[in-house]
Amino acid sequence: MMSTKQNVNDMIEKLREQRDDINVKIHLANMEVRDEWQELEQKWGQLVDKTKRLNKEVEPAVESVHAAISLLGEEIKEGYRKVKRAL
To answer: What does the record list as coiled-coil region(s) (predicted)?
Structure first.
């Protein structure tokens, strides 16, 4: 589960870098590109806001889900060991 959060954070960081690079060059762009940029800026704001809300809402659940998955994985792993020893 934590890797999912890390993947989202990595995506956000890569997009932030691209955004910063484009923002520097945008003042030279024509009006059509500027309009597209403004739409993308709105979507960027939505993405950042939703990611923040998701992180706040999901964080408490992530730990318990991770613990449950880990426990289940250990149970399966031990079961495989028992079957392998029995063979």
So the answer is: 1-32
Whole-angstrom distance, CA of residue 70 vs CA of residue 64: 10
* Beta carbons of 15 and 46 less than 8 angstroms apart: no
* Residue 27 DSSP one-character state: G
Alpha-carbon span 32 to 38, nearest angstrom: 10
Q: How far apart are CA 60 and CA 51, in angstroms?
A: 15
What does the chain come to in residues?
Answer: 87
pLDDT bracket for residue 59 (50, 70, 90): confident
Q: Report residue 29: phi and psi, to 5°.
A: -80, 160
Cα dist. 1→7, 9, 85 in Å?
A: 10, 13, 32
Residue carrying structure tokens 């318990």: 64
